[in-house]
Amino acid sequence: MKAATNYALLAMIATFCxxxxxxxxxxxxxxxxxxxxxxxxxxxxxxxxxxxLDKRFIFKFKAQNIAHDSRTFLFYALMGVxxxxxxxxxxxxxxxxxxxxxxRYLGGIIGLAIGYVAKYELDRRFVFNARPA
Length: 133
Prior knowledge:
0% strand, globular
C-alpha cells in the first residue's frame, strides 16, 4: 500500500509539472499551434520529472553509467508512447467538448492518471527490471 501511495504522490508531482508547463506556455504563446506546442512541452517536462522520480524513489534504479541511463530513459520514453496517446486523447476530447482551459486540463489530468497506472506496469516489467546494460 505504501508503494502505491508513493507512486500516486510522485505521479501528482509530475502531473503538476506537466499541466503547469502547459498553462505557462498557453498564457504566453498564442501563435500557430499553441495548443500542440503547450501539450508537447508539458509532456516533455512531465516525462523528465517522472523519469527522475520513478527511477530514484519507486524503482531504486541506479544506472551503471550515462550510456546505461540514456538507454533506460529512451526505453522509458518509448513505453510512454501509448500512455501519452491516452493522455492527449482525454485532454483534446475535453478541449473539444467543453469550453475553457480548466476543462482541458481536467481532461489532461484524467488521461495522465489512467496512463500512469498502465505506465507503472510497463516500467516495472520492461524498463526497470534487472536487464544487463
